[in-house]
Specification:
The complex is a heterodimer of chains A (146) and B (115). Chain A has 146 residues and is of the alpha+beta class. Chain A has a single domain (3-142), classed as Heat Shock Protein 90. Chain A has three helices and six strands, in the order E-E-H-H-E-E-H-E-E. The longest helix of chain A is centred in the N-terminal third of the chain and has 22 residues, at 38-59. The mean pLDDT of chain A is 91. In chain B, helix 1 packs parallel to helix 2 (58-73). A five-stranded mixed β-sheet of chain B has the order 1-2-3-4-5, with helices on both faces. Chain B has one domain (4-111): 2-Layer Sandwich (Transcription Regulator spoIIAA). Chain B is 40% helix and 32% strand. At the A-B interface, helix 2 and helix 3 of A face helix 2 and helix 3 of B.
Chain lengths: 146, 115
């Protein structure tokens, strides 16, 4: 059951692939509620999917004792999504470039790249208890134009 | 929604009609198994019809790449047919659009295989 205040919804998920689908569906729902257009909602929900996959697989290693916490916050100018795991984490500063010719035919390693492509900002923070990813998408009315 | 796979043989080319989602878990595994079985049967020319695939995540993209290299390493060809806009855009931003041979007409796709 989501813990909901006016602008923030938080869900605690098990470290399973079902949780990935749940987080994705929640992202679509929250982005729609924030008035984000369909094409952007698709990108946001995919970024959340990729982040939750990382948390479940690489962070928590499917450990049933560990949880993934996903929160959605609309601060009036942006949709801010935080995905936290309870694992050792990934070294986000030293990930191979999936567009490099030597990596282009690799079967994995595109999740973070897609998050960065689809969101306005992606931040990583390592804590003693795990890793937190913050995904930010500016709301349409908050955009000032180039 | 999971992925569905059906197989047709047209002029010696195997066409896999995929529908649904190719994502981590079931969809990716189904595609991997289908390609593995075809290669094991000696089928080296494969056309993946993605016209009814409405969603692919990074795992699904990886599975398409793995399918491509698996078939190529066996001396065969794997081509993609009927990309939706979302899948097209994903292959563009991941720079895979130029790696795959992508077709939008089944008859000409069939004719383009080296037999």
């Amino acid at each position: 059951m989501p813990d909901s205040t006016v602008n923030r919804v938080t869900i605690t998920l098990d470290s399973t692939l079902d949780s990935v689908d749940q987080a994705e569906a929640m992202a679509e729902q929250q982005a729609a509620r924030a008035g984000i257009p369909e094409d952007d909602r698709y990108q946001i929900s995919m970024a959340v999917r990729e982040a939750t996959v990382n948390a479940v697989m690489h962070g928590n290693s499917y450990d049933p004792a560990k949880k993934v916490i996903v929160s959605f916050e609309n601060d009036g100018s942006s949709l801010i999504i935080r995905i936290s795991d309870q694992g050792a984490g990934v070294d986000f500063d030293h990930l191979p470039d999936p567009l490099a010719p030597e990596n282009i035919l690799r079967g994995s390693g595109r999740g973070i790249f897609l998050m960065r492509s689809f969101m306005d900002d992606v931040q990583f923070q390592k804590h003693d208890t795990g890793t937190e990813l913050t995904l930010i998408k500016h709301l349409p009315t908050a955009q000032t134009g180039a | 929604m999971s992925m569905k796979v059906s197989t047709r043989l047209v002029d010696g080319i195997v066409i896999l009609d995929l529908s649904g989602r190719i994502t981590l878990g079931e969809g990716s595994v189904q595609l991997r198994d289908a390609i593995r079985d075809l290669v094991a049967q000696g089928q080296k020319n494969i056309l993946l019809n993605l016209g009814d695939v409405n969603y692919i995540d990074s795992s699904g993209i990886g599975e398409l790449v793995s399918a491509f290299t698996t078939v190529k390493n066996q001396g065969g060809q794997l081509k993609l047919l009927n990309l939706t806009k979302k899948v097209h855009d994903l292959l563009q931003i991941t720079k895979l659009y130029t790696v795959f041979d992508i077709k939008d007409d089944e008859a000409s796709a069939i004719g383009s295989f080296t037999k």
